[in-house]
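Collaborator request log, item 7. Partner lab (contact: R.S.) asked for a structural prediction of Formate--tetrahydrofolate ligase to inform their binding assays.
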Amino acid sequence: MPYDATMMADWQIAEEAEKYMPTPEQWRDKLYLEKDEVIPYGRVCKLDFLKIIDRLKNRRDGKYIEVTAITPTPLGEGKTTTTVGLLEGLGKRRKNVGGCVRQPSGGPTMNIKGTAAGGGNALLIPMTEFSMGLTGDINDLMNAHNLAMVALNARMQHEANYSDAELSSRNLRRLDIDPKRVEMSWVIDFCAQGLRNIIMGIGGKMDGFMMSSKFNIAGSSEIMAILAIVRDLRDLRERLGNIIVAYDRRGNAVTTTDLEVAGAMCAWMSNSINPTLMSTVEHQPCMVHAGPFANIAVGQSSIIADRIGLKMFDYHVTESGFGADIGFEKFWNVKCRLSGLIPSVSVVTATIRALKMHGGGPQVVPGRPLAEEYRKENLSLLEKGIPNLLHHIATVNKAGIKPVVCINAFDTDTKEEIDMVRRYAEQAGARCALSRQWLAGGEGALELADAVIDACNEEVDFKFLYPQEMPLRQRVEIIAREVYGAEGVDWAAEAEIKAKLLEADPALNDYATMMVKTHLSLTHDPELKGVPKGWVLPVHDILVFAGARFLCPVTGSISLMPGTSSNPAFRRIDVDVNTGKVTGLF
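Returned to partner:
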């Protein structure tokens, strides 16, 4: 029986479901794992990736299911709820199913969005652990990342204070780092706008090297992107050693290897290579691994988790961040290219409220009540917004996949509104399913599960949007035109100069193209909703992530450190001092 999601908060549903959650030992037996393949961490456990993949290497892969969405409102449209509901629905159909989602950042959890555990009866448990650090992967990442900054600043201090002979006596060589060309930042896993720009090293010569610096949020760290795409520990170690921290005064890259810190960084990350295993409230297995944002990074859970999930399960579900223009595009052209894995189907999550917003509805503001247009039937507004859904269906079709549209239902949606979305989706060649997983769990997601099973039985003519050898500017042009709907690309003078230099370097030929763009619009401007026409994509910079092997064209105004709102979630989170249980998470 599902819990009464209309009367119980998410943390209350989680608390009840956790009473029956499998223990690490029970998961081992349920999933036919060996004793040494499960690493207990209190109520959850990690899975020993290397041991599992070695034992199951000859087993045939299961069906690979990706979940994406239309362009969301600032509230999000329920991709994780859909992912978890799909796991539960497939479980109700007695399928051997599992999945993987990204680990949530403490920034959104304690700010506007709240936890990313799903919601209602489509929820991941244990919810408190999931929302507040889990098994320490993000903490390990922050330590690894910030250790590189410690090494950099200490080296700059020593080079400023010692002669070449004195450096040599300490087994150091002069790197001659240019303080104006430090590429790396510090990271913290909160939305802390006051740390976007800082001056460090204030004091005397023993207080570090004085310079401008900054903090970014942990999800934007290159190390987080690396964790999402590595294939094994050797790959992780190599990529960590290639991270560019700064440039010297002659323009040469200074890497973590030059600073002799890459090995220690990998030591911090060695435990994070293994995914964490969690549970839906209906006790289907779901891994949690990596947490890069999609608007500023790759936006995917890990290749490692997908590799073992496809060996362990007949149906493996993974989730991509934000809409299909960002998350799916990066899944399609970056993650699948790096992993060699071919998806069976893509689920496009849609809500009627978001389609009404794209049709010209009032602004949706987190923390404020939804306008009447979103709470009452409005077919005219809905129909005007449906082109956004059709645009994302067309994007998925370009990959050679027939998508399944999931209407993530709210109690305010009317039959006429649902029928309209279904009609347009099916006319566009997509399957369409109504899902009420928030209200009814797996029972509410049976229509979605059946549509996905049906789609998985079809042959996939999978193809990338562009060949690997295509030059950077051409890649950006084709992404802008074919995925975003732009008429072209406008390169700022400095960005174009940098692009030409990068294109001329044969060592960068295999670098992936990782677009940096707002998730709130198909364009670079978050205020432009629906499917804008007659616009050009401006590119004003290119970030180079040599460890991840990404070239990241930057469009619009994107901050790598979000700000905390005036009404953040942390105001409602507390601890019951009698039981020690965390309350107020949503």
